[in-house]
Fold each of these.
Amino acid sequence: MSEEKTEDLGQKYQTKPTLETILEEMRAGFDFVNKRFDALESRLASFQKEVTHELRIIHDDIRHVRVEQEDLKDRVSELEKHPA
């Protein structure tokens, strides 16, 4: 009796409509995953733009600090040359 059930299930799942249904479900799953990847790529691109912008600001700040540091070094050197 259990062999008959197994054969019936085997025949049921070997039909072309069932295979087509499985393929459709797989394709739908792939489409879903592709959409998720697209969304993640979009979010990553946005995040990358934000990080790039912040890095530019930080780089500019570092350049200003270096200029101020050089100015301070020059002023300290002048003060050392001509103590009050």
Amino acid sequence: MLCAGLLLTGCGSGEGALNTLQVGDDEVQIIRTDIAYSGGGTETLFLISPFRDRPMDERISVARASLKQDGACRLATEDPGILRAMTAKHTAGPNDQLLIAPVKC
């Protein structure tokens, strides 16, 4: 599974559903975890393809648009500094197509 290539804490011990959504030309895989975020919600992995370097603002925008399609969920924070740190904390290697963000439903 995707978790094998990531250092995603808690992966395999209760991760949630995998949703794949189309946002414009991008495909977004949303993997929910059971890792609680201190500001409310749970940490969620957004894997965006096609794979290419994406600035944090673009990743946040794609994640926000995918959550609008997915239902009544929203990002618990859109602070680029927090999301950059959260993504770096849980991934190994380049992560310019990934975003790990807290999601509230």
